[in-house]
Amino acid sequence: RLAPDGVPRSEMIERLQDLELAAAMERTGIWAETDPQSLLEERRKEREEEDALKEFLFPDSHPEKPLDPNTADKEELQALPGIGPVLAGRIIENRPFKTVEDLIQVNGIGPIILEQIREHLLEPEHWEENITK
After folding, report:
1. Are 113 and 83 in contact (CB under 8 A)?
2. Rg of the Cα atoms in the chain
3. CA end-to-end span of the chain, whole Å?
4. What global pTM score does this model have?
5. Long-range pairs for 121-126 at CB < 8 Å and ≥24 separation?
6. How many CB atoms lie within 10 A of CB 80?
7. How does pLDDT run across 76-100, given as a tens digit for each residue?
């Protein structure tokens, strides 16, 4: 999804992380009371836990190679995390896509699933756009 000013979600997250980092470096606000080194360790553990949880929830859900959502067949799409037969069919029905964010328009794909599948998709410049439904 896009923010009200048209900025993609991923870019907004990066901007917020940059602002947080700047505040931590300047030790302003709550950062005046926070140990930056311990924060790094806490975030590393958080990422490890998140990765372990994803692996537990979706142990076999990943394609062998990055996919083009405009050309992948139903079985290939089902290898994506969180994509079952119904969502795979909806992806096929809603083709063509021009950006990864366009997939959010597919009924049943929200921000969480979109972020889970993003890393398993080809970069959009390698997608085929002129696919018939």
Report:
1. yes
2. 18
3. 23
4. 0.52
5. 121/66, 121/67, 121/68, 121/69, 122/66, 122/67, 122/68, 124/97, 124/98, 124/99, 124/100, 126/68
6. 25
7. 998 898 898 999 999 999 999 999 9
